[in-house]
Amino acid sequence: MAHIHLEDGSFSLLWVIVWWACALSLLGIALYFLRTSRKPDPRRITIAAFCTAAAFAIFQVDIPIAGGVHINLTPLIGILTGPIIGSLIVFITNILSAAIGHGGWGMIGANTLVNFSEVIVAYAIFRILKRWVPDLFSRAGIATLAGLFVGNCVMIGIILVSGIQGVTQGSSQILTGLSLIFAINMGVAVIEAFVTGLTVAYMGRVRPDLLDGGKP
Amino acid sequence: MTVPGESRERYGIALFLLLAVVLVVIGVIVTGVTGPMGIEERFTSAVGLHQEPGVTPGEAGTGFSLEGHPVLYIAFLGILVIACFLLYRKYRI
């Protein structure tokens, strides 16, 4: 849902390097935990592969609502695979998306951070709410809305901090424009919340063992 | 009489639906203010960039459209297949 749809050259080289460095640091930590933990469950690897393929495909589908939006499935990735494998999935998805012209190469670092925030928040909320909201559909839906809310905040924060090259607008004007995108994104996030909720509820019925995704 | 588990389930669904309704209403109002725009168009407009004409992806008549050049999908799919084949051979998965 939240994704920085700007071409290369929108951010200065300094900020491109900064966001790439942050994303690579995050991936380094994820790889460290993966290598030091016990051998990954083959089922989880399979789910990760399916999530990567599904996320990449759904990234490219322009849904004709409000002029065109796309969903990410990042909250579903967080719920099913957890933040460690999820960080690798969003990185790969962003690389593949940039390879076909969806977002610039220089934006991969920033977009990985945006998507990772969605993954980790959805994962955390889904688990925190387990005690108070036992129903899988509504819990996954609420976790999705929370994840996408934070993802949109991170997206706006990264753009405001980085600044846009070659524009005369001030930060307040950019913030106003991005706030409109935020509101539309959150309206469409409801669709993603329903998709995620239905998927998780179905998996909970047929394969409840697959929903312990984030446990090491 | 409702048991606590049922009560919590209803509470969860009610909370989710409330959030959904509020967000949809806000989204519809804002869409009405800005009008229909593509993703890139909305972004470039928001940050003050000017979009070059002709870069908006066209729809294929179904209401959905693929972003980027279709040939690149095939090219990268081919690269991925070759890479997976080489990794498969090297590590004998």
Write a short abstract of this structure:
The complex is a heterodimer of chains A (216) and B (93). By secondary structure, chain A is mainly α. Chain A contains six helices and no strands.
Structural write-up:
- The complex is a heterodimer of chains A (216) and B (93).
- By secondary structure, chain A is mainly α.
- In chain A, 71% of the residues lie in helices and 0% in strands.
- Chain A is globular.
- The mean pLDDT of chain A is 88.
- Chain B has helices spanning 4-34, 39-47, 70-91.
- Chain B is built from three helices and no strands.
- Chains A and B meet through helix 5 and helix 6 of A and helix 1, helix 2 and helix 3 of B.
Please give a handful of descriptors for the protein shown.
heterodimer, A: 216 residues, mainly alpha, 71% helix, globular, B: 93 residues, 3 helices, 67% helix, flat
Question: Strands, helices and their partners?
Answer:
The complex is a heterodimer of chains A (216) and B (93).
Chain A: H1 13-36, H2 42-60, H3 74-99, H4 108-128, H5 136-162, H6 171-206
Helix pairs in contact in A: 1-3, 1-4, 2-3, 3-4, 3-5, 4-5, 5-6
Chain B: H1 4-34, H2 39-47, H3 70-91
The ordered string of helix (H) and strand (E) elements of chain B is: HHH
Query: What is the CA-atom radius of gyration of chain A, in angstroms?
Result: 17 Å
Total DSSP helices of chain B: 3
Could you give the order of the helices and strands of chain A? HHHHHH
Terminal-residue CA separation of chain A: 27 Å
